[in-house]
Design a protein that fits this description.
- This protein is of the alpha/beta class and about 300 residues long.
- Helix content is about 35%, strand content about 20%.
- It contains 13 helices and 12 strands.
- The strands form 3 sheets. Strands 1, 2, 3, 6, 7, 8, 9 and 12 form an 8-stranded mixed β-sheet that branches. Strands 4-5 form a two-stranded antiparallel ribbon.
- A hairpin with a 3-residue loop joins strand 4 and strand 5.
- It starts with a helix and ends in a 7-residue tail after the last strand.
Length: about 300
Amino acid sequence: MRPALAALVSLALLSPSVTWAQTFPIERGQAARPDFSEDDALQAVIDSPLRSAEARARDAFRHPFESLTFWGLRPGMTVVEIEPGAGAWWTDILAPYTASTGGRYVAAWVDTTNPQTSQGARDARAALQARFDADPSTFGPATVVDFGPQSGVGLPDQSADMVLVARAFHNWARAEGRTDRYMAEFFRVLKPGGYLVVEQHRAADGSDVQVTAPTGYVPEAYVIEAAQRAGFILEARSDLNANPMDGRDHPFGVWTLPPVRRSTQDGRTLTGAERDHFDAIGESDRMTLRFVRPAAANN
C-alpha cells in the first residue's frame, strides 16, 4: 500500500476526530469496510491520456486515487455523480473506470422535465450524453439522468452503490429545503450498504452557512447533520484534501483560488501581487466524507 494511502486509512478509521473541534461519533457495524488495496485499473484511468494535461495537473490538489479509495470505490459498482458540470473532472475518471470493471457510471445533471430549465443547460447535458454515446469502448453504458428539486434523481430505488457529491452544497444551502430534499433522494437511490461520498469546500467550524455559502464554503457540520437527518451514518472522514493555507477570506470567494482564478468582479481587480498570493494558496480547504446507507431493514 502507498505510504500516503496507508496514512489516510489510519487517520480515517482509527482516529476520525483528531482534527475537528466538533465531535461526530463514527458509527460502525452497518456495512463492511471498503477494501483499501491497490487498484491497478483505477491508476490506469487516472494516468490515461483521455484526461487533459490541465485535469491531471489538479491531481496534486484533489488526490483522485486516494480520495476514491477512501470513499470505497470498487470494481463493478454503479456510481452516480451529482451535477458533474461541463468540466466533468471526476467523470473522466469514474466513467472509464466503471466501464472497464463491469460497472456503470451515471451523471445526474439537469432536470429536463422542468419547463424552467434553460436551453443552455439542456444543450450541455445533451452534449455529455453524446460524448458517452460516441465512445462506448471508453465509457461503456454511461448515461445522464434527470436531477433537480422537482425530478429528484432519475433512478429507481436502491439502484446505486455510490453517490458522489463534489462541491455542490454551497449552492443548495442557499435554497430553503434543497439540501434535505436531495439527501433524501440520495438515500432512496442507494442500495443498503451503499456510500454517499462528499468533497466540499469547508468553512470554519461554527460558521453560519447562510453567511459562508455565497462564498463557496459550508461548515462540515452542515453536511454531516443533513446526511444524518436523511438516515445516513457517518462512517469515515479525512483531511486528505485539507489545505491549511486557505484562510477562506478571499475577495471573490472560493472562486478567487485556482482553478477558477477569478481576478475581477464588481469593480474590484486584483493586483499582480494579490494574484500571485492566491495562486500560491492552491485549491480550497475541503472536507472529505464517507456516509453509508444502513443495511438494516428498518432504515
